[in-house]
Specification:
Shape: elongated
Number of strands: 0
Largest sheet: none
Helix content: 40-55%
Number of helices: 2
Order of helices and strands: HH
Number of domains: 1
Radius of gyration: 18 Å
């Protein structure tokens, strides 16, 4: 169990997004070290997509926590299923 990331029931990142990111980085490093390092565009795109998913997880987590926070004197308008910019 020492080689696994800690998991929390209320965590902000989906574990599959972390796994996809790690796999994408491995593929990018493999492509960069190959005999044809010019073929890194597809693995690089996979890294960008994985990072985008992680950033979206963070935004959603922050938005959810903002909506659940109850600060006296402040009104927070939270719309269900609102797109996050």
């Amino acid at each position: 169990m020492d080689n696994q990331l800690p998991v929390a029931a209320d965590g902000g990142l989906l574990d599959i997004h972390i796994t996809v990111f790690l796999s994408a980085i491995d593929n990018l490093l493999t492509a960069g070290r190959s005999n044809t390092p010019t073929r890194i565009l597809t693995p690089m795109k996979s890294v960008v997509n994985a990072v985008s998913a992680i950033v979206e997880d963070v935004r959603l987590f922050e938005f959810t926590n903002l909506c659940e926070a109850t600060t006296p004197g402040f009104v927070v308008l939270c719309l269900p299923a609102a797109p996050i910019p």
